């Protein structure tokens, strides 16, 4: 096909010809308006060039479609078209268009008859699937993987097996719909050709009309309009919009339109938000199969709503095996309830009979004498009528329309049904489970839903595997009513957690240890629990989740995990119950995953340590499970135990010998900086205390110096690494420690990933213990006794540098308690090598002060903060005189031309580094001294954030 410029007249003629052909089937509502619209479309296409198109497309039509600038677009279309029979595709399309229509609003070509509300299909589609209501007798209507597909018979139930096997209809997933709609960013209803071209299905995107645009679909609209912030939508363009600017006159407000759509099995919901001149309008349009109609989960995505074979709620429930439940309902005088639109949670006959017998035998109070006091709060004053009302909810609730943790209000005052949704256990194969199986498992008050979404002529029926006990009491009410949880009640009240468990609006899961479980604990742990300190708080929080975790959430054969209120992981799995292995236990197992009677009893174990003895005790604000063992946690252990668990033996032994172990264990809301054993061996102060432990342990009891040393490692309050800041922190020894943060990243100089305290680096951190936190450091913290000036005077090797400092006006600076400086000090032997220069400098006051200021930094830079720094990522820091000094690390840390021979001599107001050379800087900032090595400009400072640049 040759390439030539397409004329608008030719395009218009082509479009009108196609429209004329379509006119034999149906007429436009307004032919003149359609001609005008096609004329505008032809003008838009006037710039297009021809490209190669499939053979079965007429040139006169193809030439008006695609510009050669969009060749890749057509390539995708042509590739898709190569997989189909073009003759069959064309003939099927045209035949479908000319097929006799039974309803003028549903003629084969969609969009040309009566068009409903127009909404975009470009949506966030959800994949939640469900099980449609079907006649309970139609058991065989199951499509299994690998079996031939048979469409549902017209007018019958979508799940029913047809008598006449038919090959699946040709799936006309619109070949052009995806690409053209994406290209032009238009809704499906308007598409590439607006309302579509009738009876020419090759270009007709309405050939695959979505199900929610078809018959038997009911539409609901919700609208809300409100004022928005007066300045929220206003956009100022170039000031006042003067003539010399690029202003848009007449547009003073920014109008924003946002639309999102969600498609479920039987529902399509679009929410539109429009901000117009300070008014926000929210419109929600819900399209769903009308009552009595539905779509099969096994049908194609575009399958329309088909009529269901519905029965009365009474008949449906009886066919589902709940005859006794319905009989009780009638005896209670609640027959009229079934005439309303309600959701009924029915109980199978076996489970309901067992419940009724136990209620009768125990005078409507308890299941058995052992459980009488435990269950009395659940069944007191309940009647058969109350039981039915507790299973009845006004309104029709399809399972896919109910969210996790949603409370459904029942007809029994004060009783709600809590719905929870849990994933299924993973399967060995992609589709090992039944084809009708839902992808999620559902519970009502932690009772598994074994059958869902059975539509009736008035409402919906769900089947639960046991009677739903009304949840009217909070978790704390349940704990207080049980005589086997007296210790738990005491500990909750001591820590204040009882108030949280009384919240009616909250949602919690409490793994409640009984009294026997607490008696297993070490007496010291029980003492700390009774004290109600941080240990007790963390131990109890280890047993609480801020969500509803029913026993059904744990799947047999796999591990299920979640996080508690301490953000620590709990793992759940089924294991054999050795205490009662002769009797199978299915409590807590999903109905579809019950245990074999020949297998030993199975109970849920938590972290392999505690076993759930009694599960799914429902409360109004969550669920309670009774466990036989207190769940241990490192964050609930005292500091002495944490030190032992992390092999911090020297510090722990010093605590014991000083008689401070109990005092430290009782601390809460503290930050502990604990040196490792290796840190003790590598520092002078650490080696001193090691010798005292070995040689004079008897002298450490009540030793004041040792107490100060140990308390100097304790800071208040609790600070995790994410909250550390560069500042002084008060210690329990009434002396401050200095925290510094550094970056080791050569590019992102503001990302701090290294922390020090008094220049001791944090090597392990954020270990929680009894309401406190432990950070492990690589050196001991010795209490500094002198300021910088006093430290210089105390070391005879610094006498020549001290003489230079004393000759200047910097003495007061180095003595200030508020300083926070780093002093680079050459030892005397360095000055002796250049003694002549040293003597001359002492006589030149200006030069002397310049030299000393070049050795003083206005911030604390520990050696651990000096990392390798090569071009182009050269790091510098600034002196008090404004000069830039380059920082680097090779064999040792380096500052400009000097290497650091001794690091981090900590003083009260800063630190000292010994260096092996005199810092060589120029008199003026930015120039290079003769023989100096500062050949690059400043490339990031540790003193203050500087921008990086390349030379």
Please explain how this structure is put together.
The radius of gyration is 40 Å and the shape is elongated. The N terminus and C terminus are likely disordered. Helices cover 26% and strands 21% of the residues. Strands 8-7-13-12-11-10-9 form a seven-stranded mixed β-sheet, covered by helices on one side. The chain has a seven-stranded mixed β-sheet with strand order 15-14-20-19-18-17-16. Strands 22-21-27-26-25-24-23 form a seven-stranded mixed β-sheet. It has 29 helices and 34 strands. Helix 1 runs antiparallel to helix 2 and helix 16 packs across helix 17. The protein is of the alpha+beta class.
What is the structure about, briefly put?
It is built from 29 helices and 34 strands. The model is unreliable at 1-6, 20-29, 44-207, 230-253, 364-377, 430-435, 580-597 and 925-951 (pLDDT under 50). The chain has 951 residues and is of the alpha+beta class.
